[in-house]
Amino acid sequence: MSHVTVIGPGAIGCAIGAALAQAGHEVTFAARTMFSRLSVQKEAEAPKFYLANVVTAPEDLAAADWVFVCVKTYQVPGVADWLKAAVGPETKVAVLQNGVEQRENVEPFVPQGTTIVPVIIDLPASRSAPGRVVWKRIAVAGVPESAAGEEFCALFTSSFVTAETTEDFVTRGWLKLCNNAPSGAILALSGQRMKVMHQPGIADLARAILAECVAVGRAEGATLDDALIERQMAAFLSADGEDGNSMYEDRMAGREMEWQARNAVIVRKGIQHGIATPVSAALVPLLAAISNGR
To answer: Which end of the chain is less congested by CB atoms within 10 angstroms, N or C?
Structure first.
């Protein structure tokens, strides 16, 4: 059994915390709002309930075996005190975030030499109240091949989450970004769910964002084949029209959005590699303006 602190009990944090509890670990949630019970439900199935150990002040935390960072990318500086309290000399830190810069996001806020495990999480989930989450379709976490990666995967033995190592983590990250970058920007800017992909011109816009993401991803070392764009477009166009995503939900709720991790990263890394990204460069200021003007 390991002692795991989960920083950020949103939809992903609560679902992951429940999986760790199901696997027999001691889980502590670092949260602003107290809750005593965790309810995690797979869509169309009965919920599973767990007692929740919640700490609402960093000074009440002790160093853990593992710290799971489940806040959004722009929230990391705001949890610096939690990281300082929970990360000891032997603590390993798993970063479950969108984008391709998980390690870079957290490194400035943990002691030098801390083992950081970047995680690509595929777990569609929504939170209806503190400690109450519904998830659907898939629950998979991918990490780079390493001793720490193997240890991370072992944490989820006998849980509903499938954790696996991959020898090409860079490609896995960019594949997910190829899904997140077009869909997040288009749904957030239009204020519509996935049905918007069938509106005139929207599919062409999605293809243009995808083409830029693929070009920059390849320059970063990802293996992205020529057929990827049309495979991803087929997934967009066949999706349930009422599906949303976290960027859309944040826009509708008036919250800050992850445009830096999902879209601005394409522009930043494109500049580094000398790759033009005019479509993303045009969309990023609009996303920033909406996010900052919430």
So the answer is: N
Report whether CATH 1.10.1040.10 matches the domain 169-292: yes
Q: Where are the domains of the chain?
A: 3-166, 169-292
Render each residue's pLDDT in the chain as its tens digit; 294 residues: 999 999 999 999 999 999 999 999 999 999 999 999 999 999 999 999 999 999 999 999 999 999 999 999 999 999 999 999 999 999 999 999 999 999 999 999 999 999 999 999 999 999 999 999 999 999 999 999 999 999 999 999 999 999 999 999 999 999 999 999 999 999 999 999 999 999 999 999 999 999 999 999 999 999 999 999 999 999 999 999 999 999 999 999 999 999 999 999 999 999 999 999 999 999 999 999 999 876
Token readout for 258 is 């992850």
Catalytic residue check, 176? yes
In the CATH scheme, what is the homologous superfamily, with its name and number, of domain 3-166?
NAD(P)-binding Rossmann-like Domain (3.40.50.720)
Helix (H) or strand (E) holding 268: helix 265-273
Count of beta carbons in the 10 Å neighbourhood of residue 145: 13
Q: Is the dihedral of CA 109, 112, 115, 118 positive or negative?
A: positive
Coil, strand or helix: which one is 83? Answer: helix
pTM of the model: 0.94
Q: Which of 153, 51, 27 is nearest to 94 (CA)?
A: 153
Cα separation, 252 vs 254, in Å, equals: 6
Tokens, residue 279: 């479509």
CA distance 48 to 35: 16
